[in-house]
């Protein structure tokens, strides 16, 4: 196992993900919990110190004792972690004009960590401080185009650091660097696969299910909640009850489709149509976070009633790691959105939450689904947010806007399926707000809604790129939406990546 110490970087988790992609198991520990005893108990084969938003020389800056460099295991510092190593060992870190985005580096030592790199490579930088003076006994192994130290290593001990971010895809040879560290330097074993995931999840579930006399699984038909419910059902048996709640914010035809799917998989969920209740509670609400809070609380209220007064001790959810990160569930991470199944759960809920997939990414869950024998069309199902169309209708949720978002999204998905593109993208949908656009229909002036189409490509939902659809496909989507939904006069296409945008508008 390789341990990543998180110093508050929003994308520190990507380091662990890339290590897992290589086939080596990686865990993340917040720096506040990274005591010597905690790290030694985990017995890592190597340690990676992540990036972070602070400056190492500031009072109260996140840190870790220099004992971490004396544990006898390889250590790699990335960005803030790189500067922290320099700072701890007597080097000097200063403010500079910084480097951001694609940056060329000159590689001075093409071995060890940088084995397989060329004399000049492109990397992704994001820093305003730099290592002005390397510590004693350290060798500079790469310099940036601006003359800053881009990488170094200790002369004798397995301590390495890089100023750039090898974990992001914008550093083309970043994966090779992480392979060199994990497999070449740390000699870690490639054993992270669905079988190993199952072992760890079952160990977790055996512990968590102790004392749970009644277990409720919230199922939506998506791959995450379905896999979570299937995994728990293996150990919980008849203690498990699955509940599917139609909150009135589903896609076109989705409630019927989900119930059929779950029954085909051997789960006979309690079906609750709470559409009126959810939409009534959301009437007049415009704030995104308030919508998410209301939806999260309503789910728990409906779950409680669905068991007809029976108390449930444990609630099973298909929460993934990106949900935790965006909800500010990790120390040092900002709250981007309150996912209804993480930060929006009501404080009065007494049931213990069980999340067997909490530290997995979507592609790992898909692999688990296939390992469990679930159909490919379940494993490859596109993500759909728990709050549903509630986060795709900006401003107040009205029946009219909800219908427009539902119909427009159905058109987007239908066109992509017809063109053989639906399975190639991460997510495809349409959103609508309150903005209007003057149009002409039937030789008459009309003032209609603006629909924004969003189609993205991603690996884990933490970063995403907009899909470069063929012009004729975008034209077909626009034509069908404006001709089949009379209230729409303008269709736009969202071409902003994540970051700085998020995938869902609200």
Strand order of the largest sheet: 2-1-3-4-9-8-7-5-6
CATH class of the largest domain: Alpha Beta
Q: Can you tell me the residue ranges where pLDDT is under 50 for at least 5 consecutive residues?
A: 332-344
Tell me the number of structural domains. 3
Largest sheet composition: 9 strands, mixed
- Oligomeric state of the chains? single chain
Structural class: alpha/beta
CATH-defined architecture of the largest domain: 3-Layer(aba) Sandwich
In percent, how helical is the residue content?
25-40%
The proportion of strand residues reads: 15-25%
The number of helical segments is 14
> Mean pLDDT, as a whole number?
90
Briefly note the CATH topology name of the largest domain: Rossmann fold
Number of strands: 18
Under CATH, the homologous superfamily of the largest domain reads: HUPs
**Apparent shape:** globular
**In whole angstroms, how far apart are the ends?**
37 Å
- Rg on CA atoms, Å: 25 Å
Could you characterize the architecture of this molecule?
The chain is an alpha/beta fold. The protein has 3 domains: 2-185, Rossmann fold (3-Layer(aba) Sandwich), CATH 3.40.50.880; 194-379, 3-Layer(aba) Sandwich (Rossmann fold); 392-493, GMP Synthetase, Chain A, domain 3 (2-Layer Sandwich), CATH 3.30.300. The protein contains 14 helices and 18 strands. The strands form 3 sheets. The chain has a 9-stranded mixed β-sheet with strand order 2-1-3-4-9-8-7-5-6, sandwiched between helices. Strands 12-11-10-13-14 form a 5-stranded parallel β-sheet, sandwiched between helices. A hairpin with a 5-residue loop joins strand 16 and strand 17 (464-466). The longest helix is centred in the C-terminal third of the chain and has 20 residues, at 399-418. The protein is globular. The two termini are 37 Å apart.
